[in-house]
Amino acid sequence: MADENNKCGHEACVCAVGENEEYCSPECEAAGAQDLTGIACDCGHAGCS
Questions:
Q1: Dihedral angle at the C-alpha atoms of 5, 8, 12, 14, nearest 10 degrees?
Q2: What is the number of structural domains in the chain?
Q3: What is the distance between the alpha carbons of residues 9 and 34, in angstroms, rounded to a whole number?
Q4: Which domain holds residue 27?
Q5: Which residues, 6+ apart, have CB-to-CB distance to 7 below 8 Å?
Q6: pLDDT at 8
Q7: What whole-number distance in Å separates Cα of residue 43 and Cα of residue 23?
Q8: Per-residue pLDDT in tens (0 to 9) along the chain, 49 residues
């Protein structure tokens, strides 16, 4: 799980992101843009549901 400084911008996602990145995947970026915070993460990375 990522700490708050490098966590994906999608609230339901626990993935880490690189420096200067906001989302770990296009799926999380789309969910964040649509404000889908209450829906489970669909990024496909291990550890996310």
A1: -70
A2: 1
A3: 12
A4: 1-49
A5: 13, 14, 15, 16, 17
A6: 92
A7: 10
A8: 455 679 998 888 999 999 899 999 999 998 877 776 666 888 999 887 6
